[in-house]
């Protein structure tokens, strides 16, 4: 909490809220905890929203002697979350499958809007949309930690299995 000039106490913004002030973080944080998500999904979405997933950029910030480059495609000088999911050759096709699945219920969702969960799906489609995203993020990230490529076929199979299709 912090106090403003008039003595009112307000919550202090977290790092991601300061970095991206245009995002409706209250809604994003709420979606990451929506009733019906598994604990694993909630965990991966928390890490995604707070930019805690260990991209090359984050590792370099924590340990400056480590390279910030992508370890999978070796073409990106800076391995950001956007690169890891939507620009890396190892994942971009699978991420496209995840995005298209989520766009069934949230048509305006873009790669940039997906990472902060800027989902505009209406009930009863909010939960399935967030499940598609969480499932896809979890699969891609698990494979990245194993230095493995995520195929579009593997993404489709995972979405079908985990989302109950």
Account of the 3D structure:
The chain has 165 residues and is mostly helical. Helix content is 51%, strand content 2%. The protein has helices at residues 15-19, 25-31, 39-49, 56-62, 81-87, 92-103, 111-114, 126-145, 152-162; strands at 2-3, 9-10. β1 and β2 (9-10) form a beta hairpin. The mean pLDDT is 93.
- Give the rounded overall mean pLDDT: 93
Q: Count of DSSP helices?
A: 9
The percentage helix is 40-55%
Amino- and carboxy-terminal Cα gap: 44 Å
Largest sheet: 2 strands, antiparallel
Strand line-up across the major sheet: 1-2
Evaluate the radius of gyration: 17 Å
Low-confidence stretches: none
Label the structural class: mainly alpha
Strand element count: 2
> What fraction of residues sit in β-strands?
under 5%
The backbone outline, from C-alpha atoms, is globular
């Amino acid at each position: 909490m912090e106090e403003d000039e008039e003595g009112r106490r307000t919550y202090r913004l977290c790092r991601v809220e300061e970095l991206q002030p245009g995002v409706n973080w209250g809604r994003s944080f709420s979606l990451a905890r929506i009733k019906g998500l598994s604990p694993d999904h909630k965990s991966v979405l928390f890490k995604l929203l707070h930019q805690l997933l260990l991209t090359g950029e984050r590792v370099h910030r924590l340990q400056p002697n480590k390279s910030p480059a992508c370890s999978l495609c070796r073409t990106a000088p800076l391995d950001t979350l956007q690169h890891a999911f939507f620009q890396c050759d190892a994942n971009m096709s699978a991420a496209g499958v995840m995005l298209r699945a989520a766009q069934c219920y949230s048509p305006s969702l873009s790669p940039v809007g997906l990472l902060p969960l800027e989902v505009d799906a209406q009930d009863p489609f909010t939960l399935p949309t967030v499940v598609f995203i969480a499932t896809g993020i979890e699969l891609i990230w698990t494979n990245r930690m194993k230095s493995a490529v995520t195929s579009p076929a593997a993404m489709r199979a995972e979405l079908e299995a985990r989302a109950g299709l």
